[in-house]
Every structure is written in C-alpha cells, then in structure tokens.
Amino acid sequence: MAKHVTLADVAKRVGMAPSTVSRALRDSPRVTPATRARIHQIAEDMNFQPNTLAQSIRNQQTDTIGIIVSNILNPYFTELLRGIGDELALSGKRMVLFNTDEQAAKETRFLNALTGQMVDGLIIASTGGIDNYDKLTQTTPTVFVDRVPNADSIHHYDAVLTDNPAAARDLTQRLIDAGGKRIGFIGSQVAFSAIERLNGYQQALTDNGLPAKRNLTRQTDYTPAATAKALNELLQQEKIDSLIVADSVILSQVMKLLKQQGKLATFKLGTFDYLSWFDYLDVDLVAVQQSTYAIGHAAVTTLLNRIATPTAPITTQRLPVTLHQNF
C-alpha cells in the first residue's frame, strides 16, 4: 500500500521548511513565482494531496454546502440539483446531499448532521413540518428553495421560489378557456406551495364567475391509494370535467387511473412540472414548466452572497414559468 505523502515529505524533498512549502502551495506572494512553481511541480510528482480537514479547522471554512431535498425521485429535484451542482462547481464548493422523503424527522436529523460538519451554508427544500429552523440551522447561512416552511419564514430567510399563485391562475385559465366548468384540483401535502397553487386556482375561478368551492379540491400524500381516493371522489361526487394536479408524480398516477377507467381521452388535465416526454402524450394537457435549473443556480448565488455579507437584507426571488399546451 502506498504511503500517504505529507507536507513534511514534500518539504524534505524540496529542502525547505514546511511553512514555506505550505505558503507556496497556497500561492502566497511571500514566496517567489519560481519557487512556487518548483514546489507545485514536486508536490504533483509526489502525488501530494492537501489535508482539507486540517485546512477547514484552521480557516473555519469547509467549502462544503449542505443540500436537503424532500423527494429525490421527483424529476423537479433532479433538475434543481443539476443547477445547484453546476453553480457550486464554478465556485469551488462541494455539496453534501440528503433526501428526506417528505419526513420532518429525517430533515431534523440531517440538519443536525450538517451543522455538526460545519458546512458553510445550507440550501433546503423544506418538508414543511419544522418550526424551529432558527435552532436547527444555528448561525449557518440558509436559503430555502421551492417552498418555505411557513409564510413568516420569508421574512427571516432568503428564498428562491416559483411564482406559484400566478402560475396556477394562468394554468386554470387555460382549462377555463378550453370549456372547463367544473375543474377539480388535487394538491400535495407540501403546505406552502400547495396553498399558493390552490389560491391561484381559486382566483382564476373567481375571475371567471365560477364557484371556487372547497368540495372541488382534494389532497394526496403521493401514495397510489390516496391519489385514487381523491380522484374517484372528484369524479363520482363532484362530476368534474377537468383536473389540475400539483406535480408530475401525481399526474402519472392520475393518468393511469383515468386510463383504467376509460376516461383519459375525455379529460383535460393541468399540472406543474412539465417534462419533455409530455409532448408525446395523446392527452389534452397543459403543463407548467418551472425555471428549475435557474432556481438552483440562483439559490447558490444567493447563498454565497449571504455567506459573504451576513447582514445584507433578506431577499425572496420568484421566478416566472412557461406554459406548454398540446390542445
């Protein structure tokens, strides 16, 4: 097994003090360019790897960002993580990723682990079941994405969000323009975005003189059984003629159920989280494409700004959406 090369080993090979070698490897101007180049070359030849843990302790900075998402199987978070990862790579930061499966207990445990590792910052897609982020995040700079745990959090943490109310209003308007009179709504358990999207849906109904009735709305916990119950109640009890769902995960469950019942071809559907394969569906569908990659990018830049300037004013960014309609 090859011996781990230490700073002392490089210093011995170079014939200089370890402190001088350390400064050279950090490109300190206190070491001449020629000497720096020579030491860098020798360190590379010896396959020397700096002790990043020791550097982190010394500098009180780990160059690591903790990322918490709520459902990594949701394609939304795949694209979000791509945006986050690409921007972190440009900044020289690393990410540590945790997935909560929409469970607040997991999120609490992961936050404790990340703050214990002294990450430089946190980017969180909250489960919505935690009300003591001030204690959990301690003094760690934090940015929320996609959703915040409650409305009051917007005043205490930076956030990068979709303009959910406007998107849901425009989505509902498309179905109304297509002749929808009894438009149902199946939301998720994500309190913040679900409420915002529900509000936009109801605003569109009200604007068009249609009753914004609670009996036209249902909620699912993403299990097939819960989604089936919500859909069947809307179909049988409320006689809906169109349906909006909260995201692509629920949409896939709904389409399967409607196909089994022979009703898929007769329905107009609306959803958040447009995916490219929607274009090939033989279904009347309007889909909201969120600026997901841009949200990830903006979350990192916002967090790095917060790390650099802790006392800067709190910001909330709401990114626009694009609607895709195939009928």
Automatic annotation (TrEMBL):
<keyword id="KW-0804">Transcription</keyword>
<dbReference type="GO" id="GO:0000976">
    <property type="term" value="F:transcription cis-regulatory region binding"/>
</dbReference>
<keyword id="KW-0805">Transcription regulation</keyword>
<dbReference type="Pfam" id="PF00532">
    <property type="entry name" value="Peripla_BP_1"/>
</dbReference>
<feature type="domain" description="HTH lacI-type">
    <location>
        <begin position="5"/>
        <end position="59"/>
    </location>
</feature>
<dbReference type="Pfam" id="PF00356">
    <property type="entry name" value="LacI"/>
</dbReference>
<dbReference type="InterPro" id="IPR001761">
    <property type="entry name" value="Peripla_BP/Lac1_sug-bd_dom"/>
</dbReference>
<dbReference type="GO" id="GO:0003700">
    <property type="term" value="F:DNA-binding transcription factor activity"/>
</dbReference>
<dbReference type="InterPro" id="IPR010982">
    <property type="entry name" value="Lambda_DNA-bd_dom_sf"/>
</dbReference>
<dbReference type="InterPro" id="IPR028082">
    <property type="entry name" value="Peripla_BP_I"/>
</dbReference>
<keyword id="KW-0238">DNA-binding</keyword>
<dbReference type="InterPro" id="IPR000843">
    <property type="entry name" value="HTH_LacI"/>
</dbReference>
<protein>
    <submittedName>
        <fullName>Substrate-binding domain-containing protein</fullName>
    </submittedName>
</protein>
<keyword id="KW-0678">Repressor</keyword>
